[in-house]
Structure formats: C-alpha cells, structure tokens
Amino acid sequence: ASHNPKEYNGYKVYWDDGAQIVPPHDTKIIAEVQRIGSLKAVKKMAFQEAMEKGLITMLGDDIDQAYLAAIRPMSLNAALVQRHASDLSIVYTPLHGTGITVVPRALKAWGFQNVSICEEQAEPDGNFPTIKSPNPEESAALALATRFAKKRKADLVLATDPDADRLGIAVRKGTDDYVLLTGNQVAALLTYYLLDQLHENGRLPPNAAVVKTIVTTELITAICTAYRTEVVNVLTGFKWIGQQIRLWEDVARAN
C-alpha cells in the first residue's frame, strides 16, 4: 500500500537499476496482463513449491548488512554527530512497515544512540491497525509516535511509510508541542545541508546536480543556484528520478 490505506495493498515492480519500472517496460507488462481473458487462465503455484523450484528468492540479512555498509560512509559530518548525537532524543515509528528492519540499525551505525521505537506500530502489518492511512506526512499517522515523544521529551519524531521510501519528521516546539514538517521543508533543509557540507569539505564536484520533481518547491532551485549546482526537473515519482540517475550512469560508462 506504500503510504496509502490498506485497500490499496499490492506490489511494486522494479527494474535492474533498483528503480521502479518506466516505459517501455511498464507498457509491455500491462500488455501481457491485458492478454488474460479469464482469471481461470492465470497459472498458480503454491508458495513453497515456487521456493523449491527457485522461482522465488528471499532476501536475507546479508542484503541488509550490505546496505548498511554502503550508507555508513555517507555521513557528511561524523564529528558533528559525535558531538551532539547523545543529546538528540529520537522517536521512530515504521508505521507497521519494513523500515523497522534497517532504520534503527542505520541510525545506530551513524552514532545516534538515543533512539526509541513506537512499539505499537513496530510490528509489520498490512492492515495498519493503529492508523487509517500510513502516510508519514500526515499528522494523524504520527499521533501515536508524537504522544510517545511527549512522554520522553524527545527532540525529533521520525516516521517512514510501510515500504520505507517516504519520510515524515516532527520537531519539538517548546516543552510539549510538536510541529510536522512538510515534504518541501524537509527537502529544502536536506538539500541545503548536503550542498553546504560537500562545499565545506571540498567534495562538491563542478558538475554537481540535484534532481527534483516538478511539484517540489522552487526553494530547492534557489539553494542550488547559490552553490552553482544544476537542477534537473522530472515528473512526479521516484522512478523518474531513478531514470535520470541511470541516464547519467550510462553517459559516465560511455565516456
């Protein structure tokens, strides 16, 4: 269901670049679906049988470990984290989704030790029993985590949607109130921090570029202009960002 209500439960299809499918692959798959004249014509197989025949591959902890090892060096200012991580109190909720498998471990690997889990929403469950819609950018979805954060006087509430590709952040305001940041606010803050740290460390390449969707705030463009960084606008959806990344990779390989 991603960040949608449980009625939208389904699955996502990815290509070999790790991004969701784009043309022509999506239209070819749908063409095959439309060839089905009756549900009786759909071939079925028991899950266990498919496993035994090697048609299903289960991803284990080795993949999680490889992912964590890959992102660990991406910290832009380890010294800053070391100075302040112990003082920063974080409450995290996976909203009954997959984020519970790696997000707490990633935060710990980066040095954030003061992380508490909203246990009522820690168990993966496609019925999302504690919320109507698991969209972390909506205050209703963060209600449980926010109440928990107030008890712990946490500084931040972090929430990921069930497939952990969408992030919601609430920050403490005053003694017992929390403000949910919008997606545009989070994007602007992260873009500024990323470019600023790369610039300060002499790691911002002359051909640096930021990809954003056409509906994302133009504040991103203003920030990038200040750091002489190109902005590429794509259609809404992570798959179009992935497509742009692949285009750059293809150009790099060709050169």
UniProtKB/TrEMBL annotation:
Keywords: Isomerase, Magnesium, Metal-binding, Phosphoprotein
Single annotated GO MF: phosphopentomutase activity
Residues annotated as domain Alpha-D-phosphohexomutase alpha/beta/alpha: 1-37, 84-173, 183-246
GO biological process, one term: purine ribonucleoside salvage
Pfam families, alphabetized: PGM_PMM_I (PF02878), PGM_PMM_II (PF02879), PGM_PMM_III (PF02880)
InterPro entries, per database record: A-D-PHexomutase_a/b/a-I (IPR005844), A-D-PHexomutase_a/b/a-I/II/III (IPR016055), A-D-PHexomutase_a/b/a-II (IPR005845), A-D-PHexomutase_a/b/a-III (IPR005846)
SUPFAM superfamilies: Phosphoglucomutase, first 3 domains
UniProt similarity note: Belongs to the phosphohexose mutase family.
Name of protein: Alpha-D-phosphohexomutase alpha/beta/alpha domain-containing protein
Lineage: unclassified sequences, metagenomes, ecological metagenomes
